[in-house]
Amino acid sequence: MSESVLFQPAKIGSLELPNRFVRSATWEGLAAPDGGCTEDLVRLMGELAAGGVGLIISSHAYVRPEGFAVRGQLGVDRDEHIPGLARMAQAVHGEGGRIAMQLAHGGVLAGTQLTGLPAFAPSLDGGPEKTRRREMTPADIADTVEAYGEAARRAKKAGFDGVQIHAAHGYLLNQFLSPWFNRRTDRYGGRIENRARIIGEILSSVRSAVGGKFPVLVKLNSEDCLEGGLSREESLEAALLIAAAGADAIELSGGTLLSGRLSPSRAKIDSVEQEAYFREAARALKAKLKIPLILVGGIRSFEVAEALVKEGVADFVSMSRPFIREPGLVNRWRSGDRRKATCLSDNRCFGPPMRGTGFYCVVEKEGRAEEQKSGGADKEGSQEDMKRG
To answer: How does DSSP classify residue 256?
Structure first.
């Protein structure tokens, strides 16, 4: 029997990957208070590489202090972070893996109570109300564009194999793309060409910092799933503009942190019909895109993942929550055990990092605790039987 297409090597730009599986960037809540890389993060990335993931995309790392969004978030805003990030990259390479760093800025969704700074926003109007925000001036935009380039330089110096520009899920660059957030009337507002302009400028800044051969990916919403937000049609236009500006691949997601049940992390994926919930948007984009397309969003079954690549819907499949519970999922599937991922999509894994303890699969931890408790009871029972015997 021939090997599945999912386990065949593939390339993103100059980077050759051992298979078609991508670990989508995930907020682990495990970074130090100053954004530094911890040994917990180093160990986790090494486990993912050992588990067979073809490309690991690190948790969203903020490129400027006011872009810090949530506690335990990784930072790449200063050179002091490079040694810790280098240990992360080395852990992945030591297991034969590849890793890209996701570069992000919270924009209006930044944690102002954590930073003590007003949130940057495309405009004073639009988006969630009652947020402490500052409308970005042209100088602010230019500084932020430069910050992305500097962050990419740090990632390359730390030994990462590429970077991903986060322009999805309601964060700053998605806010520029979205007419719900972006009410500007200058060259960064209005038509989609203008709203995508900042991403093109960031791509240019990053290329100047890392060179033409260093892989640069972009994560993009297929739509915002918000009334008045980025539509599927405009997302397709933006994707083609981004590809023309020099991106090596696009990871397609959808929804924002404000989209309710249509968020990027939808709950209760109980059937194959519910999986890959952005597949139709991916199919439309893939028909026109000339660079690799990575699809994320609710993929849980091997058969669904394989069909997405075989049918030309996407070139790579990306998952997040399944790898929290099973960092070795890819190796399990490769061994012939093709049962679906054990992730229940209950989103309980978000609770621990919100409480400041770092993420883990709550269901699995509760199961282990119950098993240990049961095992202890069985052991006591056996000892009593021996005494009676």
So the answer is: B
- Domain span holding position 138: 5-340
Enumerate the active-site residues: 171
The reply to whether 368 falls in a domain is no
Is the pTM value of this prediction over 0.85? yes
pLDDT score of 181: 96
Cα 58 to the center of its chain, rounded Å = 7
Alpha helix locations (H) across 79-196?
82-94, 112-115, 138-157, 172-177, 192-195
Assess if residue 371 is contained within a domain. no
Which residues share a beta bridge with 75?
A: 62
14 within domain boundaries: yes
Tell the residue number behind the tokens 């034969």, with chain if given. 96
Report how far residue 60's alpha carbon sits from residue 29's, in angstroms, rounded to the nearest whole number: 10
SS3 172: helix
Cβ neighbours around 374 below 10 Å, total:
10
In a domain, 222, yes or no: yes
> Whole-angstrom Cα distance, residue 211 to residue 220?
22
